[in-house]
Every structure is written in C-alpha cells, then in structure tokens.
Write a structure and sequence with these properties.
With 149 residues, this protein is of the alpha/beta class. The protein is built from 5 helices and 5 strands, in the order βααβαβαββα.
C-alpha cells in the first residue's frame, strides 16, 4: 500500500490551518501506519514537492504494491504527466483531498486524476486518508471472497 503526498503537504499543520487543519503530515503518516497494521496492510508513504519525483515513485509502485492513495495537491489540477503515470501502473487508486475542492477556487474544481480513480474522498481533513485506507482494505477482502461476488 502506497500513500503519495504532493506539493506543500509537508507544510500541513502550519499552512493555512483553517483550510487544511492542524494535523501534520507526520501525524497522518503515523496514523495510517498504525491503522494499516490493524487492517493487515503494510503502508508506505512518500511526499515530494517535485512532479518528476512523484511520477518516479508512482511508477516504482508498479508490481510492488496492491493499491495507491494519492493527494497530488496542486498537481491534481495541472499534471497530465502525473495522471498518465497513475493510469499506467494499473492499480486501484483512491484520490484524497483534505479540503472540499468543489467549495474552493474554480481552478480547483477539475481533477485530472478523478476519472482514473476508483474513488475520491474530499473535505474530511486527515480523516479522509483513514477512510481511503479502510476502503482499500475492504476492496482487498472483497477481491478474496467467493467468485460469485
């Protein structure tokens, strides 16, 4: 399980707390690691402010993880290259955003990632990551179920 955090998410906790909350990225990653252990998932996290580094890490996930959770930050609205990398790895992907993009500036209303993701969680703050991880665990359990499902 890989969680990818895009640009400026390293500033969580101090960057616009009214919009993004007071939880730090380290706290989010710690919570996800602990929750992953409870759910039987090995959770790895990666953050970068650089588009190419994000693309490289997503490509490295191919064949090494079972699912991807991504908050691409501002690249959500601008990066066709990151979208193409996410599509190329052929993994179940859940897109997460701390704030509700539909209530923000108009340029944030479009996501290049949403059409290639199995789901999107927005506006629930840090809880959105935990919900995404629970969704991945549930999808994994359903996949192991009877062939009639």
């Amino acid at each position: 399980m890989l969680v990818v955090h895009g640009p400026n998410l390293n500033l969580l906790g101090s960057r616009e707390p009214a919009v993004y909350g007071k939880t730090t990225l380290a706290e989010i990653d710690d919570r996800l690691k602990r929750l992953g252990e409870e759910l039987g998932l090995d959770v790895r996290s990666f953050q970068s402010n650089h588009e190419g580094a994000l693309i490289d890490r997503v490509q490295e996930a191919r064949g090494t993880v079972q699912a991807l959770i991504i908050n691409a930050g501002g690249f959500t609205h601008t990066s066709v290259a990151l979208r193409d990398a996410v599509a190329a790895v052929a993994l179940p992907v859940i897109e997460v955003h701390l704030s509700n993009l539909a209530t923000r500036e108009k340029f944030r209303h479009h996501s290049y990632l949403t059409p290639i993701c199995v789901g999107q969680i927005v506006g629930l703050g840090a809880l959105g990551y935990e919900l995404a991880l629970r969704a991945v665990a549930q999808m994994k359990r359903l996949k192991k179920g009877p062939a009639t499902r």
